[in-house]
Amino acid sequence: VRTLQDAGQPASPLMLDFSGNQVGDKGLEELLSLLSEDLHAVHVRILKLHKNRLGARAGCMLARWLVRACEDGRRAPEELHLSHNELGKEGIAEILMGVAEGGGMDFA
Q: Tens digit of pLDDT for each residue in 43-59?
C-alpha cells in the first residue's frame, strides 16, 4: 500500500479480515489509528472484526472513525462484520449514531 501511495497511484479498496483474533478494544484502537494516520488514503471496503472480544468502547472508537472518514472526504466501509463481540446496546448505539452523524458518507 505504501508503495502505491508513494508512486502517486490510488490504492485499491481493501478487505481486512481480523475475524477470530481476539483483537479486543486496545487492538482495535491501534488498527483504527493505523488506518486513520498511516493508511488514510486506503479505502477499506470490508472490515471483518467478528469474534474479537470488542466491547462498548470499541463501538465508540468505530463511530468516531466512521465520522472522521466522512469529514476527511474518505469513503466509509461498505461492510462492517461485528457479530460475536461484546459491544452491547451501548456500543451498537454508538456505531449507529456515528453512521447517522456522518450523513454525507459515501457507502458505494
A: 888 999 999 999 999 99
